[in-house]
């Protein structure tokens, strides 16, 4: 089904049909009822524009470069799912590069995607430090770089929701799990936790603070750190983990050591990945609307590419707090996990 077929069917010129379907400047002179006839006929005849002809005619590729730290992890895959859905609905392709926090690989992918004609970039859990040559939207980027729109979670609200929840349950001895040094959310999340803890009068004790180091995208990223926390022999009744995947690994390690969740230790994750509601017990967590964040990133970069949206340095997203079975009131009769 060609453009000429649609034109012949309507008794119009191919140029008129093309202008209406592409919403080009020439379409302004076409009556509204004619535009509606053209769009209806294109749908009825199942007309699909030739992508390459459209690219040459409009001098556009309709392609976005997506740069992520990891594509198979629960966080990245949810964000990219939102990106893909919005781009596809709006007639865009995307090319993906995975850098695994290797600066050289990141630069190589950026250059490679530029050479392939992408019109903008979306980065996921990636710190961009130099001003980009194309419209760029960063999901959890945090670096203030001219020309980059950061889509960030309200980490202070997330910290407040979590720590207030644990405080109301009577938890004072709380263990904290910091993110990996290379994760783009680590610094801002930890800073927010420290600030809110100070406001609420909650002590952050070095002996109950653990930092993740490995980049394992599986629950094993948290498993050994739970063992390490128990080995320190310092009493604690709750854990605020850096993310869900580490919290799930810690839950397994605690349970293997005879620590009951939530009777002995309450645990809170972060992200609300798909598996969080399927743990036993279900994981209480801070919900990031990851797919929505991906959709917003795609909508923003398209808007900046086409000029329909003005540049904005930041888009702030509020989290939700999801209470499940992994948290409960601190019982004085609970076992001290440090002696198990």
Q: Would you write up a description of this structure?
A:
It is a single chain. By secondary structure, this protein is an alpha/beta fold. It has three domains: 3-58, 434 Repressor (Amino-terminal Domain) (Orthogonal Bundle), CATH 1.10.260.40; 63-153 and 290-317, Rossmann fold (3-Layer(aba) Sandwich), CATH 3.40.50; 155-287 and 322-339, Response regulator (Rossmann fold, 3-Layer(aba) Sandwich), CATH 3.40.50.2300. The chain contains eleven helices and twelve strands. Strands 2-1-3-4-5-11 form a six-stranded parallel β-sheet, sandwiched between helices. Strands 7-6-8-9-10-12 form a six-stranded mixed β-sheet, sandwiched between helices. Helix 7 (155-168) packs across helix 8 and helix 9 crosses helix 10 (244-256). The model has no long low-confidence stretch (mean pLDDT 89).
